[in-house]
Amino acid sequence: MKIIHLISGPRNISTAMMYAFAQRSDTTVIDEPFYGYYLKHSDIDHPGKEEILNSMETDPEIVIKNLYSAAKKTPVLFIKDMAKHIQGLNTDFMNKMHNVFLIREPSHIIASFSKVVDHIPEKEIGYSYSLRLYEQLIKKEQNPLVIDSGIVLGDPESSLIKICDALGIEYQSSMLTWQPGPRQEDGIWAKYWYNNVHKSAGLKHKMEKPKDVDEKYYSLYLQSIEYYKELLKHAIK
């Protein structure tokens, strides 16, 4: 049993990474299992909030129990998670997982996220908590991985080969492509957030350059870029 726990920020190709792992013959994937807990215990107003709360478990202890039960179904379980969703939880449940931090240059996150949500506090991006959590795991000798979205998009196949090698699993070429459209592993929130990835057919080569940031989000960008740079130092090249 191998549990890969992807800890990401929003708008960070995390869904594409989930789709990539869903193509594997040995892997079950789960989409943002703590989203309901996050919405229930925060004042954040996301699209479809009530629908999401009514559709999923919000007790983190039950969620954790269910995750470990799901891990028995296939040799590999891939959990797509958001850093902000687990903030405030006892993270001991991560001790038996392979924890992977997925980061992206913040101007891309802000530009994409602001198309769906107008008000973006730093906790929504989640980089400050991601860095703290990474440092906590290092102290526990957990040896978490850091993956940068820009590096992955720059060379998807080589990046996936290196990621799989670091995780101790065999790379499968099927991870590079999938059929466009909604997928069975999508959370109920997919209709609000996954339009772009639903148009995709796989991880394609793309060189990302920083985007212009609207003035209203510039202080958020300055906050986030410092945390991002610290995490980037540890990213798989």
UniProtKB/TrEMBL annotation:
Top-rank lineage group of the source organism: Bacteria
Gene3D superfamilies: P-loop containing nucleotide triphosphate hydrolases
A Pfam family per the record: Sulfotransfer_5
Family label: Belongs to the class-IV pyridoxal-phosphate-dependent aminotransferase family.
Record protein name field: Sulfotransferase family protein
Lineage of producing organism: Bacteria, Pseudomonadati, Bacteroidota, Cytophagia, Cytophagales
